[in-house]
């Protein structure tokens, strides 16, 4: 699928990877609806983009009503949606003490937002014979996230849902990609306030010591190159593939290695 002339929706576009993807899409000739729960943040991103190439919405990426609103905005402003970037995400609370409400929030944004967007768009894409769903998961969805069960579990689920979409609808013209980076220099990794909880600090150290922390613009460039080639798995950190292979080749050895890594980070 071609980016030039396409219509795209990017959730979580108020900063980080989402904002970088939106900029790269516009630079590539796409018309883009940017949406984020933080309306002021997404407006600041849009202020640096050509006004005739973008439209704005703010709201919960996991809410059916907001998804309907965003898709309608895209259709009425630019035309049928070609690309949907399910990029919004939250870290969630660390450890076993995460509450049910915190689990619900992570599941809503990191997983069910993808399910509901696909439910809204995929039938029309099947009828048209084309459409592209891009899920932002994480290397944590292939490996794990030290310190945060909510993040690790929901990102595994995001990868699983993207796989299912590809298997189920890939032969009917629906393309699917799943973005799984390690560390990216965003507010999700480096919030404005330093972590005060030991497990939150562990989560941050685990990511920043695992490999090079990329800029959001670097990730966006990899994403656009991958969707032009229609690759399912998008790995801005190439070493993640080797880690994933090691995990699959000997799960017990991988678990022991992760236990040692955890001990080294907490000693």
UniProtKB/TrEMBL annotation:
Keywords, in A-Z order: Oxidoreductase
Gene3D superfamilies given in the database record: NAD(P)-binding Rossmann-like Domain
Stretch forming the signal peptide: none
UniProt cross-references to Pfam families, sorted A to Z: adh_short
Family: Belongs to the short-chain dehydrogenases/reductases (SDR) family.
PANTHER family: 3-OXOACYL-(ACYL-CARRIER-PROTEIN) REDUCTASE (AFU_ORTHOLOGUE AFUA_6G11210), SHORT-CHAIN DEHYDROGENASE_REDUCTASE FAMILY PROTEIN
Protein name: SDR family NAD(P)-dependent oxidoreductase
